[in-house]
Design goal:
- With about 200 residues, this protein is an alpha/beta fold.
- It has a single domain (about 5-30, about 40-195), classed as Vaccinia Virus protein VP39 (Rossmann fold), CATH 3.40.50.
- Helices cover about 35% and strands about 25% of the residues.
- The chain has a seven-stranded mixed β-sheet with strand order 3-2-1-4-5-7-6, sandwiched between helices.
- α1 packs across α4 and α5 runs parallel beside α7.
- The chain binds S-adenosylmethionine (SAM).
- S-adenosylmethionine binds next to α1 and α2.
Length: about 200
């Protein structure tokens, strides 16, 4: 079995990062819509893959800056090759903190690749986000979404946690986030949708 970072590095060679961009775009748009800022804002994409969300969001007039961070060097090299304007860092997320805190952290399909996602959520709360800033996390792999239960064996990956919606909500609340709210976007037939959880740092 390979680590998540090894698996996603292989995906760059196979061109599968582009498929993620396609599949994740619609629910991520809903995540962006949750963050309706009238003011200029700064942002981080945690586990940015090939950087598609960084490129997309950096075109928003109100987006003052956005940073992409990912543990896969191949993903980061691809992101840098496609975009000379924004900053991309190659780090294991739990070993990285921004120099300046930001207004909003987005993360799509990343947190369940951590053995202890609750620790990462607390770190993001304490060290990444400004007062009144938000963490907006999206995941397709969660307990209530039975369609995803076979993914771990299918992609032969070492860490891929299957956690219930209420447990994720608890992680946000125990990290100190307020106004924790959950959504399920783009549900269809047996697909329960992308579970999105947002929390505000007070
Ligand atoms: C399913 S992909 C999602 C990528 C991107 N958010 C998207 O929507 O296209 C998961 C990403 O998380 C990254 N990742 C997984 N574990 C990580 C870790 N411990 N530290 C940093 N990045 C990690 C992988 O390298 C991969 O790019």
């Amino acid at each position: 079995m390979k680590s998540p970072i090894e698996v996603f590095s292989d995906w760059v060679d196979l061109g599968k990062d582009v498929g993620m961009e396609k599949n994740h775009f619609e629910p991520v748009l809903e995540m962006i819509n949750l963050f309706k800022s009238k003011n200029e804002f700064t942002s981080i994409d945690a586990g940015c893959g090939n950087g598609w969300l960084v490129r997309y969001l950096s075109n928003y007039k109100k987006c003052k800056s956005i940073i992409g961070v990912d543990g896969s060097l191949k993903m980061i090299e691809k992101a840098r090759s496609l975009d000379k304007n924004n900053k991309y860092f190659c780090y294991e997320l739990s070993n990285w903190n921004p120099k300046l805190k930001v207004d909003v952290v987005f993360s799509m399909e990343v947190f369940y690749y951590f053995k202890k996602p609750e620790k990462l959520i607390k770190q993001i709360h304490d060290k990444w986000i400004k007062k009144n800033g938000k963490l907006i996390m999206g995941i397709d792999h969660y307990l209530e979404n039975e369609e995803c239960h076979g993914w771990k064996n299918k992609i032969n990956i070492s860490t891929m946690k299957l956690i219930s919606k209420n447990e994720w909500i608890k992680y946000f609340e125990e990290s100190g986030f307020s106004k924790v709210t959950d959504y399920q976007f783009c549900a269809k037939d047996n697909w329960k949708g992308t579970l999105v959880i947002e929390g505000t740092r007070v």
